[in-house]
Specification:
52% helix; alpha/beta; Rossmann fold; 10 helices; 2 domains; six-stranded parallel beta sheet
Length: 249
């Protein structure tokens, strides 16, 4: 590779990094705002939906830059370079919190465990069809939603094992998880949608649910993954969650 081309690639990478940082900074500022008629947590949840699109916009910009450059910006990985495997850190009976803006790492970990022989239960705010297509997860899916699914939409998801559950149905969620833990074999639970649950429930109720499920997961020798965005919790609640569930991936 010529020095000129190497320099152009470095400039292009720097541009992309700055572009991404700028978008994140803009939405970080927005998340700090308060608007009359809205609570700060509601503003943050609204902003999160925008932030989740940042990576898509960066990927689009990357393709534009690569097209102009005529070269990929990705460096060839070294043969000595090894990616960390979060599954290697997981033990049966453990509950793990995964701090991330979007649940990509959590779903990747869930899929790896299922592919290794675990039976999966996935509780998520994401539509089941997207969970199956985007993450390739084959598990029992619980879709957190207050909206009744139209029959036309159900037909498009006929091959997917899922049910809907209202975010206010914490007792039903507890029952579903307890019944799942009674099943035979190795089991893994992804308990997502924390921000959505917090919109409809007091944090203390959600924390009690997590405490209860954590103990039951331990007794059953199962695994539970809890993805969440720490920016959606105030400092006090964040400390309470981290003190209750110390294991992080």
């Amino acid at each position: 590779m010529s020095d000129e081309l190497r320099e152009r690639k470095e400039r292009a990478r720097g541009y992309l990094e700055g572009y991404e940082d700028g978008l994140k900074e803009a939405w970080d500022d927005f998340m700090g705002l308060t608007t009359k008629g809205y609570q700060s947590r509601e503003i943050r949840i609204l902003a999160k939906s925008k932030i989740l699109n940042i990576q898509k916009r960066v990927d689009t910009k990357r393709k534009e830059v690569e097209s102009e450059l005529g070269e990929s910006l990705e460096e060839a990985p070294s043969v000595l370079e090894k990616k960390s495997d979060p599954v290697a850190k997981i033990s049966a009976g453990g509950t793990y919190i995964i701090e991330e803006l979007n649940p990509d790492r959590s779903f990747t970990t869930l899929r790896s465990l299922i592919e290794s022989g675990y039976k999966g239960l996935c509780v998520s705010r994401i539509e089941p069809k997207k969970v199956a297509s985007r993450y390739g997860v084959e598990a029992q899916l619980i879709w957190l939603t207050k909206t009744e699914v139209p029959e036309s939409a159900k037909k498009g998801m006929a091959e997917i094992d899922f049910m809907t559950l209202s975010p206010t149905g914490l007792d039903m969620l507890t029952t579903i998880i307890m019944n799942f833990l009674k099943e035979e074999g190795d089991k893994v639970i992804l308990l997502g949608g924390m921000d959505y649950l917090m919109t409809y429930n007091e944090f203390s109720k959600i924390l009690r649910l997590l405490q209860n499920m954590k103990d039951r997961v331990t007794y059953a020798g199962a695994i539970m993954l809890i993805p969440y965005d720490p920016s959606l919790l105030d400092e006090k609640d964040l400390r309470r969650l981290r003190s209750e569930i110390e294991e992080q991936l």
